[in-house]
Write a structure and sequence with these properties.
With 488 residues, the protein is of the alpha/beta class.
Length: 488
């Protein structure tokens, strides 16, 4: 390994590849003078036994590069200026309540005794699908992770780039309430288990580009920058961002949520911009209930399957897609939620309205009425069908005009060949089949023709049909107008 600039190496240290006892290494570290700006570096050692630096204070940086540990190092409550374990291999690393004034680096390190072929995906504890059923909340005193950083405080960056975690454990990273003053860099990370970052605080960004994990639990994560799980990010288990707050963008562009339990749970997420244009449709559900975003970017080609989308309470201002998605397809998108309610339709309509597309908003609200009709009683469904046919629940007013003109034309054509006899046997008005038909159809106003002619037989039946149709049409229009004014 090339020598690193700015790194201080102690004398009388075994050469690269030689074995060293963990107690002797601890003495060498503890015996160094404090105050140096350069990290103390040990490189290429084979450490035998447990290196225990728990509850120590090191006023200098420490680098253990390309070292091999046969026992997990104990760094619980260690306070150090910086810590670099890049390229090292160890069964596990226990560093709860670690305090690092600078950066913690595990670039290219390998944790665990496995070969990485066994995956431990995180799945819903109530699900019957295959995969490891993770608890809704971890009991930390009874749970172990391969890399433990519970309550750790890192003032700089946490660098897990190219880290490999291959131990047969549900949690590859167990770091509840982790505090990072910089960013979390985990590009190309490979872990057989899941990452636990519940209640973590990251000042800048979380970068998981190209990482392959068994799941992610970042419930109530607070991230001051963006969360990037894209460009080949792959998860075989659940990705949980419930009640998380991300100040920048949360993106899953080109990511893969594969079986057996790959899914997205983003309920109550708060983020300005959310990208869900995945590489392929997810294996499991996408939950967006009560999430709040300004812009949602997705792709119709990777929408979840019907019944696997949950949108109730999801609010957004604008929808974007790489390819144009028409309003009918968007309606199909929200109806993939098996429990879709009126609120999801109204949210979509408002998004179209804010973009100036009033016609699409009316189409969505029309679809909402049809959806609500399915859950109504029989009489309500029948009346709904009538309103839909006549004028589209008030959202297709031209349909009512078409019905009125069609009925008037049909009535005019009939009475042009079947003139009723005048009342009293002596007509006071000139016969006009068009005005007579309109007088029968319009229920409130009178043109004076209805009472001047007395149809009989079949003519009377046709007149009754026109009168009843006029009242039904007027009633439906009034009911629809009240609905539109009340809800719109």
């Amino acid at each position: 390994m090339a020598r690193r600039r700015g790194i201080r190496r102690p004398g009388r240290l075994p050469r690269r590849g030689e074995a060293v006892d963990a107690d002797r290494l601890r003495e060498l570290i503890a015996g160094q003078e404090a105050g140096s700006d350069e990290p103390l570096c040990f490189e290429g050692l084979r450490v035998r036994g447990e290196l225990d630096l728990s509850r120590r204070r090191l006023d200098f940086g420490l680098a253990l590069l390309d070292c091999e540990f046969d026992t997990p190092p104990q760094l619980t409550e260690l306070a150090v200026r910086s810590l670099d374990l890049s390229g090292s291999r160890m069964p596990a690393l226990y560093a709860d309540r670690l305090a690092v004034d600078g950066e913690l680096l595990l670039r290219g390190a390998w944790l665990g005794r496995g070969d990485g072929t066994e995956s431990r995906p995180l799945s819903d504890p109530t699900a019957r699908a295959s995969g490891t059923r993770g608890p809704r909340r971890v009991w930390e005193g009874l749970t172990a992770g391969v890399l433990q950083l519970a309550d750790a405080r890192i003032a700089g960056n946490l660098v897990l780039v190219d880290l490999r975690v291959t131990e047969d454990s549900l949690w590859s990273l167990l770091a509840p309430r982790l505090s990072i003053g910089g960013s979390l860099h985990a590009r190309q990370l490979r872990s057989s288990g899941a990452l636990y970052l519940r209640d973590a605080r990251v000042a800048y960004s979380v970068n998981l580009n190209g990482a392959e994990v068994g799941g992610l639990d970042a419930t109530e994560l607070v991230c001051g920058g963006g969360l990037y799980a894209d460009w080949g990010f792959r998860s075989t288990g659940q990705v949980l961002l419930r009640a998380a707050e991300v100040s920048g963008v949360a993106t899953f562009h080109d990511s893969v949520l594969t079986g057996p339990a790959g899914s997205l749970h983003l309920s109550r997420l708060r983020v300005p911009r959310l990208r869900l244009d995945l590489r392929e449709p997810p294996a499991g559900p996408v939950v967006l209930q009560d999430a709040t975003v300004d812009v949602l970017v997705d792709s119709a080609e990777t929408w979840p399957a019907a019944g696997e989308l949950f949108l109730e309470g999801f609010t957004y201002k604008r929808l974007e897609s790489a390819q144009q998605v028409d309003v009918r397809s968007r309606i199909g998108w929200i109806t993939r939620d098996a429990r879709v309610g009126a609120g999801s339709f109204e949210q979509l309509a408002k998004a179209y309205e804010s973009g100036g597309d009033e016609r699409a908003a009316r189409t969505v609200r029309h679809a909402r009425e049809r959806q609500l009709r399915r859950h109504d009683r029989l009489t309500g469904r029948v009346w709904g069908v009538v309103q839909d046919m006549l004028f589209g629940y008030g959202y297709a007013p031209r349909r009512a005009l078409v019905w009125l003109l069609s009925l008037a034309a049909a009535g005019s054509l009939w009475f042009a060949h079947h003139q009723p006899r005048p009342v009293g046997g002596n007509g006071q008005r000139a016969w006009d089949p068009v005005l007579y038909s309109l007088d029968l159809l319009i229920p409130v106003a009178s043109l004076g023709y209805r009472g001047s002619w007395d149809p009989a037989g079949v003519d009377k039946a046709v007149a009754v049909v026109l009168v009843v149709s006029g009242w039904v049409l007027a009633t439906a229009v009034i009911a629809g107008a009240r609905r539109v004014l009340g809800r719109g």
